[in-house]
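2024-03-11 09:14:02 INFO receiving multi-entity request
2024-03-11 09:14:02 INFO entity count = two
2024-03-11 09:14:03 INFO echoing inputs for audit
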Amino acid sequence: MDLLGLLGLDVLLKGTNALRLLGGLWVAVRVSLISVAFSIVGGLLFGIFMTWKNPLAKVISRLYLEVVRIMPQLVLLFIVFFGGTRALGLNIDAELSAIIVFSFWGIGEMGDLVRGALESIPKHQYEAAEALGLNRAQMYRHVVIPLAVRRLIPMSINLVTRMIKTTSLIMMIGVVEVMKVGQQIIEANRMTSPNAVFGIYGIILLLYFVACWPISKLGEHLERKWAA
Amino acid sequence: MAEGELHIEHLHKAYGDHVVLDDINLVVEPGEVVVVIGPSGCGKSTLLRCINGLEEIQGGQILLDGDVVDGSSKDIASLRAKLGMVFQSYELFPHKTVLENVTLAPTVVQKRPKDEVEAEAIALLERVGLADRAKDFPRQLSGGQKQRVALARALAMKPEILLLDEITAALDPEMVHEVLDVILSLAREGKTMIIVTHEMSFARAVADRIIFIDEGAIVEEAAPADFFDNPTTERAQKFLRTFEYEK
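2024-03-11 09:21:47 INFO inference complete, emitting structure
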């Protein structure tokens, strides 16, 4: 057995295996990116909602956030994909289910980050803007939101990379993403390349790294750039 | 009523049962420099904040050019544009350059053309000696420089009245002068100002009138020479003695 075979990397060269793995990675990244987009927009609105003093708003946001934090993502995936079909008679496609669950999760966590960022802006910054005659909309547009975004970016980058990593769960509802493709390759070559289990999962580890590392670097860069 | 005339009538401000300002009556004429002094916690900063509508008031009224100052009203933004305020801790916007700090309100609130506003902003920065720092961010400036930018920012709105709230209290002693020199030159030009300060020699030099507040009420009101040389009330005498040292 040569070195490639020993490491279980020989299967990568067979057929379109390497391309299939990349395709699987793209599915995982696609699900995360779409969910992140929903999470950013929804999280901004939810975060502003969370700063409301209204007691009912407080109860609703508290409840939502607790559900997001307590429920394992896998359970949420099962509820939406299997439960949604059984109980509501909806035929939700697996990838759509994943996007729903990830957005539900992301909006909750992003909302809490937005709330934290908004509340961390000193009261005096609001007053300085008011004293200059800015109205509420102008104050949010020119002072509060730019400041909040600067505080938000590093933490939300962390959430994005966590989302990408957690997409490894969505194969459990039948989405053929990078983990599932990897499993299929390993299964199909079990007799000829028994070591593929090492090589393929090793490569998948690398692929997750390649997807997350630039994002995490970008976060570090922005954090340094905006350090006031 | 003339432009830039401020009337404070029976102003009452309290937090719950705690009365901060009690029956304050004050008229500030255009071109006048009023310096408000008094012990810490006497309510002098609160008075400035009330004038700008940053604090809710529980009684009386504040009129600027005959319009009621009410922090909860929709028109408060246009009234505030006539009142420039500078805070103790500068409160520059950290994500904007020095120049952008100065041009923000004139372009956004007054919707004036950008090039005109920028030219004026540069002139104002020149006046406070900081034109060469226009592209810098606030974090690159010293405290005294930040406070001079904050002054330029307030002046850019061409306010009728300038409210200065202990603007040198957070500064190192050697930086106090560079800030107060700017205020003195504004006073000579006839800018209407209400100044809260602990710098007694500056108060004496800049003021047309001294208002001494203690425990939320105006205790004494006099020309600076009279107030500092011959304070009539016992509380003012006691307050002024705290600035003297004897061996």
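2024-03-11 09:21:48 INFO post-check: Chain B touches chain A through 25 residues (CB under 8 Å).
2024-03-11 09:21:48 INFO post-check: The two ends of chain B are 52 Å apart (CA to CA).
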